Every structure is written in structure tokens, then in C-alpha cells.
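Narrative of activities, Objective 1.

The group set out to show that a structural description can be obtained from nothing but a protein's sequence at a throughput compatible with the screening campaign. Below is one input-output pair from the validation batch, recorded exactly as produced.
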Amino acid sequence: MKAIRVHQFGDPSVMKLEEVSDRPAGPGQVLVNVKAAGVNPVDTYIRSGNYAALPPLPYTPGADAAGVVDSVGSDVREFKPGDRVYLSGTVDGRASGAYAQRALCTVAQVHQLPMDISFSEGAGVGVPYVTAWRALFEKGRAAPGETVLIHGASGAVGVGATQIARASGLRVFGTAGSERGRQLAREQGAHEVFDHTAAGYDKEIIEKTGGRGVDLVIEMLANMNLVRDLEMIAKRGRIAIVGNRGSLELNPRAIMGKDATVVGFTNWNATPSELSVAHAAIVAGMERARYKPQVGKEMPLADAPRAHEEVLKPGAYGKIVLIP
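Output recorded for this entry:
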């Protein structure tokens, strides 16, 4: 089969499309024919070598994909050949990451994909929707009736968070850096949308809450926004940090003065139970609450280097997907 391989950490050019050997599904495993693979910012951090948990070289990037079950281990009863599924990881990125024609997974890494969700859309479920769910409820303790501010509401995680928050009874504020992105945020259910490149947008957000501030912030770029977030939250507000690309200077009194909670997390640290809860809620949401990833761009698998450049550009719009 063909797969993207990385033999050394570095810039996007280190990713090469190669022919690699296939592996059959063993006990507790599922082999999936990949129809679409999702590209996440974290994939770029790992490929560059600038991440806390790095795989042994060489490896195949990617954790998110959607496709059809090819075969299952002899003891697997949850899935059968022909099932439509989405993936939230693979057995071993050294041999079977998601940027490939087939991916080998454990049963826990495979989830049923509803019929009305396309494979390209399904490739945008795993990391984005689990991140959104955990940020809102597990870390952010969101409750119906509260106001949540979702930075980057036009990106893959932002879209997921907007849909989930709206369906859960929250008042949703979203930001985006382009008119196209702001329109997408409105379409996904944001009650109020703001241009985070405009001067004074933070004051406008506070005004929309009657001066009280927002209860929760889902923060995609903490090094740029955290100080301002602490000004926009209400007393006892929470900030869930999803993404960060650098350092910043922060006076802790900004946290103390609000009795605020600032929490960061990564899905790599999630327990099997936490992930199981998130995926159960997400599958139910796709079936009943109209959760649906928005695909911004489809690209051939061989264009993985360009996809890694695109996913980090400002003006995020939906999910970037690779087609094997």
C-alpha cells in the first residue's frame, strides 16, 4: 500500500509518499481501508520534532481518518468488513498511521460513522470533536445557559465546539479572522460572531454580556490571546487552552482577581474512559444533534507537505483532508 513516511523530523518536505508493506488485523485489531485522512495542527508539531511525545522514526503521520473496515481480528465482534467507520488513532504510527491507504487500529480506536456523514467529513471527527467536547465539558465545566467564547470558530475544532455548545444550550460567541470564516461560524450556530483581527473586539464582547464577561473561553492560541481572555471572562470564569504556539508574559493577579480557572490539556493524556465518553457523546450527536464536520479543502495524499503548510495559515476554514 502507499503511505506517507517520515524518516527524519523537519520541515514539510521530509514527508514522502512511499510503498510500504501491509499488516493483517491481529487479535483486538481492525484493518481499515482509508477513504480520507484528516490533517491536524498537532501533526505538524510532531513532524517538526517540536512536541513532547515523538514517535520512533520512521513513522506514518496522522491519527484521524474515515473509511471502510477491510478485516478484523478473530476475536473482534464490534465491527465487521464493510462497516463505515472513523478513526481516532492507529496501532502503531511507525507502520500504520492515518496518512495511508490502509490503517491498522485497535477496537477502541474505531467508531461507527453515520450514513449521512461523508468519509471526508468523518476524517474531521476524531481530534477536533474530542478536543471540543473535552474543552467544553470535561475541562471547561460548561453548563446550559452559560456564555462561551470560542476563538477560531471557523477552524475544525472551533466548528465542532460551536455545534456542540449550541446543541447543549449555551450562548455561543465565536471569533474568526475572515468574513468567510465568520459566516461559517454563524451557519454552525454561533449567536454572536466577532472579528478577532479588529481593534476593540474584546470590548465589544464584554458589552454583549452587559459588562459581566463570558463564563468560558475555548482558547486555540493562548500565546496570543490569554492575557486578553482574562479581561473578558466573568468572575469565576474558566479558560480551556486547546492550542499554543509560543510563550507570553502574564501577571498571575489577572487570574487571582477573577477567581478564574485556567486549564490546559492534550488528548494524549486522556484516559481510555475519558475518550470513550467523548466518542459516545460525539457519535450520538452526529446521529441526533446534527454534528457534522465542515470540510474546507480536499487534497491528494501526495500533497501532505502542502497540507501541513496550509493547516497553520491564518484564516482557518473547516477541515483539511487528504484523499489516498
